[in-house]
Amino acid sequence: MVACTLFSPPLELSLRVGNSSGVENVRKKTKTNKFMTKTYPYISYSKESYSEEEMLKRSQSFLEWMDKRRTVRDFSDKPISKEVIENILLTASTAPSGAHKQPWTFCVITNPELKKQIRAAAEKEEYDSYNVRMTKEWLEDLAPLGTDWQKPFLEIAPALIIVFKRAYEFVGDTKKNNYYVTESVGLAGGFLLAAIHNAGLVALTHTPSPMNFLSKLLNRPDNERPFLLIPVGYPLKEVQVPDLQRKSIGEIAEFYE
């Protein structure tokens, strides 16, 4: 069975009263400019804050915990509960998006036959990539990761999450644009990986190119484009990953003080 759902929280969830984020009662607020003639609902919001000492401690702890996240290709076939997957997807859907359009669809595949078909189609594309499309430099850059065109994890992992980006919407017969779609879905993908890590699971961001076969196999509508294919599951008891080093702060940031 294919579980494929557009996760857009209903208004009553967005306006929930008295939750842990400090959201309070709904109130009306008027924003005016030459394009805005309606009154839109606004809510009060507060965010907990910390002392400098506590802030440093929390940021360091979160860094150390996130630094333990690794891409894993050796999955157990142990099933994951649907409720856990749903919570992970809803967490991903808390990501910011252009004009709050939430232009993503998460397709969750657990059906063995469909996973087998996805693996076969992905390996066909990957074989062509490794043997024809990829440059020598590209293959050399991939060598430390130990990857090749064979993708057994697409069948072994208990769930495949395929992220589609929604280029536009149809409201009735009217085509409505989405904005900053790639950036928005990229942010949701980052939230998704963090939520998977938080649940004690592992994942792999797989991007076979081209990915159009996913649209065909899942019979997705024309406004959706495949963006990421993410196997999710438990790691095997014995897993090895490449001994890689992340860039230092001096290599990734510039401070203008």
Which CATH class?
Alpha Beta
Q: Indicate the percent of residues in helices.
A: 25-40%
Output the number of helix runs.
9
CATH architecture: 3-Layer(aba) Sandwich
What structural class results from the helix and strand content? alpha+beta
**CATH fold call:** NADH Oxidase
Order of helices and strands: EHEEHHEHHHEEEHEHEH
Poorly predicted segments: 6-24
Strand order of the largest sheet: 1-4-5-9-8
- Distance between the amino and carboxyl termini: 55 Å
Give the C-alpha Rg: 21 Å
Chain oligomer state = single chain
Any idea how many domains?
Answer: 1
- Describe the biggest sheet? 5 strands, antiparallel
| Percentage of residues in DSSP E strands | 15-25%
Shape call: globular
How many DSSP E strands?
9
Q: How do the strands and helices of this protein lay out in sequence?
A:
Layout: E1 2-5, H1 11-14, E2 26-29, E3 40-43, H2 52-66, H3 82-92, E4 104-109, H4 112-133, H5 136-142, H6 153-156, E5 159-166, E6 168-171, E7 174-177, H7 181-198, E8 202-203, H8 212-217, E9 224-233, H9 249-252
Antiparallel strand pairs: 1-4, 2-3, 4-5, 5-9, 6-7, 8-9
Helix pairs in contact: 3-7
